[in-house]
Structures are given as structure tokens and as C-alpha cells.
């Protein structure tokens, strides 16, 4: 039993799922679901289809090179069973996974940082320029904090007036 | 050894057919069309060709006949004599001679006529010459017609002759008619010869084959021979005589002891003696047949004497070959073909005798000497007298011994059967694993964990690498924190965020309003601001807006009021509140204004309002607008209780009323008001 990777979207294909296509030159294409299979049949290039891992890696959206990837490698020669080794491996898998996902999210965060910085700058500028819409410059001059002024409502009069129509 | 096979001779056609064949061939294979207008040489050539062609064909066919028929002098004398016996040598030769002459004659004819054709001067002449030539050729053939027929018959007969190889091992069976030769033949070979009670059932030679000591023997069955002088013998007997004479065979002379063939032993003995010359140099065996009817011992004295005589003769032949005289047993044998008693013995004896004779002859011949020189059987000479038995390694002996000891070793199959059979028990494959510790044999390692294949991660130095990785990760995280720390200063405070949100909201609102305005610009009615029906441009509102911006609106409100051309009421209000303290009391003013509007003051209750006073609705464009604005002002509370849709409907009605035939009378208004009240009460 092996978990395979979908050829199109690179997601994991568990045993019992998906379709495997064997071409005449003996190359095997595995698909996780019919969406990927149909896209393949349409001869779409996964490197151009936005939602696939191939695209994301190619365009630098996701982490490409990392030492955590070296841990998971298809080994053709089986090792002799060793309980300690097995235990350690199982624990290690979890840790490696965590590290890898952390690194991946950091990668994405870094990628989005420039955008964030830019947006903050824009926000600051907008605040500076548009403050006259919510606080008159005169008031700003008097009180330089950005504490927004509130509308003062005369409660008593308003209440009586409101009662009147009700009476009718 | 050449097998004489006369089956391959081509069919000899009879005279008429022959002619037909050749002439039709000539007609087909040579050009047929000729006209008298052709050049003479061409005509001559045409007819010459035909004549020549016909001659050639005749020549060919006759040649094949002559060549294919065997020449009696060239073949084995046995066959020569046999053919002579059957067909008469002279006649045979004559027929073939006639064919030959015919061939020559035809050649001559053709030659002559071709010579004549060379000088033919017209088509007709050439044609007649050709006709003559062909005609003569055909007559020649017609004349030899009987020969052809004879040859055809011979050919057919020859094709059916038994294929006897004169040079191989042969056994000949001879004797009187009905003695049991053919039944013996049937017994030892696969030949199926007719066996009948009458004499001369077998009319020609028959060949069968039998095996002895891995060698093939031909067995020839002959027709019976009677005791007659040589000249009186008929063809059938001559066949057997010929065979006897020419073939180097072993001879089995059959003797009928019982006399049931119709001939006595004396007669048979007489025959024997008359043809004994033919048994020269041939292994002879005298076979007494039909012993089931009459055993050899039971015959009379004279017969016995005769038999002994024959035996001595036969012995002579044995001695003549150089065999031992003691070997009497092989000379006189008894058997019965009916009971199959002694048949095989006879066959074996005959085969043996023949074989010995042939071997002897061959040994004596020169060829054998050449052969013998070249053969040498080598035997290793023993070096010393030491015995060398076969050598078996000790281990093998031990293993063999062990195998003999332990009969049963518990196999997996036995285990399976013990534990419930094939379907129930499944063999534990992990039993014989070679692991570092035996406790680990039954461990189950998961193959998949968290979406990864565990086998891909297994690595003997995984711990080391993991440590490295963790160290790296620690470093990286420290760096990350430092970076993050730098970044934090740039964020907006919550106050600032609130303000930003407000700004954005306001902006959006403005944009929306602008858009609405833009889209409805064409259909929106242009109302001067002073008559704002939606009460948008009120000082109250202005005041609110200004205060929301953080400014003090009172000054602005005052200014607005002072600037506006007020109504009397407003002015009075102003006068009343000189200090203008209650800046925020716009709402109150509004409410009281309504009340005041509703309630007519005494001073004005009956009289007409002054011209200066603005009647709501007068300034309006059309009467419709006038009318409903009138209602709106006169009965505002009532008006405002209606839903805006109803207001629209009412406005529309009023419009219709005003625009229609009906003038805007008090009655109409009253009606309207009643309907309105009705609606209201609903």
C-alpha cells in the first residue's frame, strides 16, 4: 500500500481512490479525482492551471526547496526491520511534518509581507488625506487626537415628539 | 538398390488419339491466319512452319515412348525374363521397333515436303503441300496403331507388377499348387493374398515384407508349379520359374504331407527333383505343411523315403555352401499354417540361412577386406591388477542413511492441516524472519501515517538528521522573530483604524450617492432648494452634520436663519428667542411649527391671508402639484400617515382630476378627501 501523488494536482491519493492511466509507453498517470482526470484528458498543462501544486511551485507561491523534502524519498531497497528505528521514524515523521508546514506558512507570509507593507502605507496616506471627512480641520487643530466627535442628540424633546404621532 | 518401378511410364495414346493430339496442338500453337495477298516467302514460311512443327511433335512423343519402355537387355535378367515370360520379348521388341521406324518415316516426310514447299508458288499450292505432308504423317501413325495399343496394354500391366528388388534379402516360396504357400505368406507378412481351394489361385508373383533381426526381408509368393517338361509350361508357371532362376533367394519348397492339395508326395518329390537344378547356391529349406492333417511321422514308408531323399538333396546344397552337415534341423521343417504351429520357426530358419549365406559371401568378397581394415575396436589395457571400485563421498552416504532413518519431517503442509486446513489456517510467514531480536517478529509497522508513506522515511541515520533539522529550525525561528519585531512598528493604532474605517465608509457613501445622482440625473425633477419637500436642507441637519465633524454649528445655523427669507412664523420665533441660546432646539421648533400650522390662529381664522403670505402650492408649475402640495400643507399629519406609495397614487389621482374634464372643484376635492378618509379608516 502506498500513498501516491496525483499527477495533475499533486494531492495525495489514498489506496482505493482515483484512477490510474497507463499509457502505451508504460508511463503511469495517477489521478485523485475525476476533476484532475478530465483536465488531463483535455490536455491541460498543470503548470498553467492555477489551483494545482505544480503551478504554485512554479510561480513561487509555495515553498520549493527545503531540507525537509529530503527526508521523504522513495526507497527501493528495503531495510531490515528494527523496532527502535521504526519508533524513531514514526516520531520523526510528525516532527518533520510540523517543521515543514511551519516553513511553508512562513514562506507564504514572507511572500505576502510586501503587500502588507504597501497596504499599510496606503492606509496611512488615506487617513492623512481623508480625515477632513470625519473631523473638521478646525476641530483637529484644537484637539489633535483622532478621537471622533459624536452627534449630540437631545433626548427629551425628541421623545415627546415621537410620542405624538403614536397618539393619533 | 534400384527399385524397378514401371509405374512412371507415360500413357501411350492409341493411333487416332495420337493424331488428334498432335494436329490440334499444331493448330493451336502455330499462327492460323494467312491471306493470299501475302508475300510468297511469307506464305511458304507459314506452311513450312506447320509441317515442321507437326514433325517435331511426333518425333518428341515417339521418342519418349521408346525411351521410357525398358530395354529388356539392360535391366536385371530377372525382370528381363519376367517381361519375356509375360509379354514375349520378340513382340515387345518388334512393337518398339515399329515406333522407331515410324519416327524416322515422319522425319523423312517432313524433310521432303519442306523441300517442296520452298518452291511453292501460290497459297493454294503451299497449302496442298502442307495438307499432303500432314496427311502422310498421320497415315504412318495410323499404321502403327496396333503396336501402340499393344504397348499401352503392356504399360498398364507393367505398372501393376510387384516391385521386387532383385538384390536384397529375399525368400521365395515355391511348390505345387494348393500346398499352402499363399497362406504362409499371409501369416508372415502383411500381404493379403487370395487363398482359395482351387488350383492357381495365385496367378502371378506377390511380394510381402517381413522382419528378422532388424532387417527387412522380401518374401515372394509364386504361383504353383506343376510337374511338366519345361517347354509345356504356361506363363504363370514360367513366372515362378523365372523367379527361381534369377533371384538370389532362400527357397522354401513346400510339401503337402497330407496330400489334400490333390497331389501325392511322390508327385511333389518328382517336381522337386526336376527343378532341383534351380536350387543351386540357394539356401534350401523343405517345409512340410499341413501337419495338422497328417503329422510327418505318420506317413507311409515310400513317402518317407522320398522325403529323406529330398532332404539329402537339400543337405547337399547346405554342404555346397560350406555349412556343417550336423545342421540337419535347418533343412527339413514341419509346420501348419492353419494352427500356426512352426510358422515362425520356418521363417526364422529361412531368414537365418539366407543371412548367413549373404554374410559369408560378403566376407569373402574383396570389398569386405577394405572395410575390415578400417575398423578397429579399442579396449583399454589394464595397467595393473589393482581393483578400483566406484567412489562415493561420505557425506552422500550419511545423507542417504539419514533419509532412510527419518521418515517424516514436519512440513508446513502438516501444520496447515493440523490447524484447520487450507481455508482456515494461513501460514505465518513471519516465523522465520531473521531480525536482531526475536520479539520483533510479530510487529506490525503502519505503512501510512498522516498522508505520508512510512517506508519512505525509514533511514538508519534518521535521528541524526532530525537533530540537525531541529537545530536549523531553531536558528531560523530566531531570525524570524527578529524580523517580525522590526515589522511591528508600522501598524495603525485602534483609534486610527476606527477613523480610517469611518473615512472609508463616508467615502463609499459619497460615491454611492454620486452614482445614484449621476444615474438619475435625467429623470430627477429639478426642485429649487427653497421648496425642499424631503426636508433635507434643514438647519437641524446641518447642525448635526457639523457637530459630527467636531465643529460648533450654532454660528452656522444662526447665519443660515438670518440669511433665509423667513416665514412669519419663523421670524416670530426668532424674535422670541433673542438670545438664541437654544441652538439645538430646531426639532422643537419643527414640531411646534406643525402645531401652529394646524391650528389656525384666531387672527386669521376667517379672513383671507395677505398676498404676501405664500400659499403652499401657488408657485408650483401645474395645478396637480398645486393641489397635492395644498393637501400636504393643509393636512400634513393626515398626509404623512399615508404610505409613500399611497401618496403617489393619490397624487396621480389628483393629477388626473386636474387634467381631466372635471375641473378642480371643491366637490372633487371633497370626494378625494372622503376616499382618503376611507382609506385611512381601513
UniProtKB/TrEMBL annotation, chain A:
UniProt keyword annotation of DNA-binding present: no
Main location: nucleus
Domain (TRASH) ranges: 6-44
Any one Pfam family match given in the protein's UniProt record, by short name: Ribosomal_L24e
Subcellular location: Nucleus
Keywords in alphabetical order: Nucleus, Ribosome biogenesis
InterPro entries cross-referenced by the UniProt entry: L24e/L24_sf, Ribosomal_eL24, Ribosomal_eL24-rel_N, Ribosomal_eL24_CS, TRASH_dom
Signal peptide (from-to): none
Protein family: Belongs to the eukaryotic ribosomal protein eL24 family.
Protein name: TRASH domain-containing protein
From TrEMBL, chain B:
SUPFAM superfamilies (UniProt xref): P-loop containing nucleoside triphosphate hydrolases
Keywords in alphabetical order: Coiled coil, GTP-binding, Nucleotide-binding, Nucleus, Ribosome biogenesis
Basic residues: compositionally biased ranges: 560-570, 593-607
Annotated region (Disordered), positions in chain: 538-618
Taxonomy, superkingdom: Eukaryota
Coiled-coil residue spans: 394-421
Similarity comment: family membership: Belongs to the TRAFAC class OBG-HflX-like GTPase superfamily. OBG GTPase family. NOG subfamily.
Function: Involved in the biogenesis of the 60S ribosomal subunit.
UniProt protein name: Nucleolar GTP-binding protein 1
Amino acid at each position: 500500500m502506498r500513498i501516491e501523488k496525483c499527477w495533475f494536482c499533486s494531492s495525495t491519493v489514498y489506496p482505493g481512490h482515483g484512477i490510474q492511466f497507463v499509457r502505451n509507453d508504460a508511463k503511469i498517470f495517477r489521478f485523485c479525482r475525476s476533476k484532475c482526470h478530465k483536465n488531463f484528458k483535455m490536455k491541460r498543462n498543470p503548470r498553467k492551471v492555477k489551483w494545482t501544486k505544480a503551478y504554485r511551485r512554479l510561480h513561487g507561491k509555495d515553498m520549493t526547496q527545503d531540507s525537509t523534502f529530503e527526508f521523504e524519498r522513495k526507497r527501493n531497497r528495503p531495510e531490515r526491520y528494527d523496532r527502535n528505528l521504526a519508533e524513531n521514524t514514526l516520531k520523526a515523521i510528525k516532527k518533520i511534518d510540523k517543521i515543514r508546514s511551519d516553513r511553508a506558512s512562513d514562506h507564504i507570509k514572507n511572500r505576502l509581507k510586501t503587500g502588507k507593507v504597501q497596504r499599510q502605507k496606503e492606509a496611512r496616506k488615506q487617513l492623512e488625506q481623508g480625515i477632513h471627512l470625519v473631523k473638521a480641520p478646525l476641530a483637529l487643530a484644537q484637539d489633535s487626537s483622532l478621537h471622533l466627535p459624536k452627534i449630540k442628540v437631545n433626548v427629551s424633546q425628541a421623545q415627546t415628539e415621537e410620542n405624538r404621532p403614536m397618539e393619533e | 538398390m534400384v527399385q524397378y518401378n514401371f509405374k512412371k511410364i507415360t500413357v501411350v495414346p492409341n493411333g487416332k488419339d495420337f493424331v488428334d493430339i498432335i494436329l490440334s496442338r499444331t493448330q493451336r500453337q502455330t499462327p492460323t491466319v494467312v491471306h493470299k495477298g501475302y508475300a510468297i516467302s511469307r506464305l511458304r514460311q507459314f506452311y513450312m512452319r506447320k509441317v515442321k512443327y507437326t514433325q517435331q511433335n511426333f518425333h518428341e512423343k515417339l521418342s519418349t515412348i521408346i525411351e521410357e519402355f525398358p530395354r529388356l537387355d539392360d535391366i536385371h535378367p530377372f525382370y528381363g525374363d519376367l517381361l519375356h515370360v509375360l509379354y514375349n520379348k520378340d513382340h515387345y521388341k518388334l512393337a518398339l521397333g515399329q515406333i522407331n521406324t515410324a519416327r524416322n518415316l515422319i522425319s523423312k516426310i517432313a524433310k521432303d515436303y519442306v523441300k517442296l514447299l520452298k518452291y511453292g508458288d501460290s497459297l493454294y499450292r503451299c497449302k496442298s503441300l502442307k495438307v499432303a505432308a500432314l496427311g502422310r504423317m498421320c497415315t504412318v501413325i495410323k499404321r502403327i496403331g496396333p503396336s501402340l495399343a499393344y504397348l499401352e496394354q503392356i504399360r498398364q500391366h507393367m505398372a501393376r507388377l510387384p516391385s521386387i528388388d532383385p538384390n536384397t534379402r529375399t525368400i521365395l516360396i515355391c511348390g505345387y499348387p494348393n500346398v499352402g504357400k499363399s497362406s504362409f505368406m499371409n501369416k508372415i507378412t502383411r500381404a493379403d493374398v487370395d487363398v482359395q481351394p482351387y488350383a492357381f489361385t495365385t496367378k502371378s508373383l506377390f511380394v510381402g515384407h517381413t522382419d528378422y533381426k532388424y532387417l527387412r526381408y522380401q518374401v515372394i509368393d509364386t504361383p504353383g508349379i506343376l510337374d511338366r517338361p519345361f517347354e509345356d509350361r504356361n506363363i504363370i508357371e514360367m513366372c515362378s520359374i523365372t523367379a527361381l532362376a534369377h533371384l538370389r533367394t532362400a527357397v522354401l519348397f513346400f510339401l503337402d504331407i497330407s496330400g489334400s492339395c490333390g497331389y501325392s508326395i511322390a508327385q511333389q518329390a518328382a517336381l522337386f527333383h526336376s527343378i532341383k537344378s534351380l536350387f543351386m547356391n540357394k539356401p534350401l529349406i523343405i517345409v512340410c505343411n499341413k501337419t495338422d492333417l497328417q503329422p510327418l511321422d505318420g506317413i507311409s514308408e515310400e513317402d518317407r523315403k522320398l522325403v529323406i531323399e529330398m532332404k539329402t538333396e537339400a543337405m547337399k546344397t547346405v554342404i555346397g555352401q560350406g555349412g556343417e552337415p550336423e545342421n540337419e534341423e535347418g533343412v527339413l521343417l514341419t509346420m501348419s499354417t492353419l494352427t500356426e504351429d512352426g510358422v515362425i520357426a520356418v521363417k526364422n530358419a529361412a531368414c537365418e540361412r539366407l543371412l548367413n549365406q549373404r554374410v559369408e559371401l560378403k566376407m569373402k568378397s574383396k570389398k569386405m577386406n577394405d572395410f575390415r581394415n578400417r575398423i578397429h575396436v579399442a579396449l583399454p589395457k589394464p595397467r595393473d591388477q589393482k581393483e578400483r571400485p566406484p567412489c562415493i563421498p561420505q557425506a552422500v552416504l550419511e545423507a542417504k542413511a539419514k533419509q532412510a532413518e527419518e521418515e517424516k519431517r514436519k512440513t508446513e503442509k502438516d501444520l496447515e492441516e493440523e490447524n484447520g486446513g487450507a481455508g482456515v489456517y494461513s501460514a505465518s510467514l513471519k516465523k522465520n524472519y531473521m531480525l536482531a531480536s526475536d520479539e520483533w517478529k510479530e510487529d506490525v509497522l503502519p505503512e501510512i501515517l498522516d498522508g505520508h508513506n512510512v517506508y519512505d522515511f525509514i533511514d538508519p541515520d534518521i535521528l541524526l538528521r532530525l537533530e540537525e533539522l531541529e537545530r536549523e529550525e531553531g536558528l531560523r525561528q530566531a531570525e524570524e522573530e527578529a524580523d517580525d519585531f522590526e515589522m511591528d512598528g508600522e501598524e495603525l493604532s485602534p483609534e486610527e483604524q476606527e477613523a480610517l474605517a469611518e473615512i472609508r465608509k463616508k467615502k463609499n457613501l459619497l460615491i454611492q450617492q454620486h452614482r445614484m445622482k449621476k444615474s438619475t440625473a435625467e429623470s430627477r425633477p429639478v426642485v429649487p432648494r427653497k421648496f425642499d419637500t424631503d426636508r433635507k436642507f434643514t438647519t437641524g441637519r446641518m447642525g448635526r452634520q457639523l457637530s459630527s465633524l467636531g465643529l460648533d454649528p450654532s454660528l452656522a445655523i444662526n447665519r443660515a436663519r438670518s440669511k433665509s427669507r423667513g416665514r412669519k412664523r419663523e421670524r416670530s420665533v426668532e424674535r422670541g428667542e433673542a438670545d438664541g441660546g437654544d441652538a439645538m432646539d430646531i426639532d422643537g421648533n419643527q414640531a411646534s411649527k406643525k402645531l401652529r400650522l394646524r391650528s389656525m390662529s384666531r387672527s386669521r381664522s376667517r379672513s383671507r391671508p395677505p398676498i404676501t403670505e405664500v400659499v403652499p402650492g401657488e408657485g408650483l408649475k401645474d395645478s396637480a402639484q398645486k393641489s397635492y402640495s395644498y393637501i400636504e400643507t393643509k393636512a400634513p399629519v393626515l398626509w404623512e400617515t399615508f404610505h409613500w406609495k399611497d401618496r403617489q397614487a393619490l397624487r396621480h389621482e389628483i393629477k388626473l382630476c386636474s387634467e381631466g374634464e372635471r375641473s378642480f372643484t371643491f366637490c372633487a376635492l371633497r370626494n378625494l378627501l372622503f376616499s382618503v378618509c376611507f382609506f385611512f379608516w381601513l
